[in-house]
Amino acid sequence: MNTVDLITAIREDIKLNLREEVLAELQPEIQRQLRANIFDMSDACQYLKISDSTLRKMVKTDEVPYFRQRGQIFFRQISLDGWAASLEKSNKEGVS
């Protein structure tokens, strides 16, 4: 292995380690921020790009994750993202 190859290998190793360290450092904050994003009906409709009536039907049939607080309906962004991801997976499995 010549010097250039050695330097390139060390550089790639440093980049990989740095990327892992940065991700490990930022991941808890990213998760905290995602949990902090709570949508009301209007915000959730905009986020999901669906109508108010469609979302209300989905809530009524427990098709979408939500929670109630003082009679109002709210949605966590992280829950909606997980729900949408599960739909993607089930749609991909159904496609031949």
TrEMBL record:
<feature type="domain" description="Helix-turn-helix">
    <location>
        <begin position="41"/>
        <end position="86"/>
    </location>
</feature>
<dbReference type="Pfam" id="PF12728">
    <property type="entry name" value="HTH_17"/>
</dbReference>
<dbReference type="InterPro" id="IPR041657">
    <property type="entry name" value="HTH_17"/>
</dbReference>
<protein>
    <submittedName>
        <fullName>Helix-turn-helix domain-containing protein</fullName>
    </submittedName>
</protein>
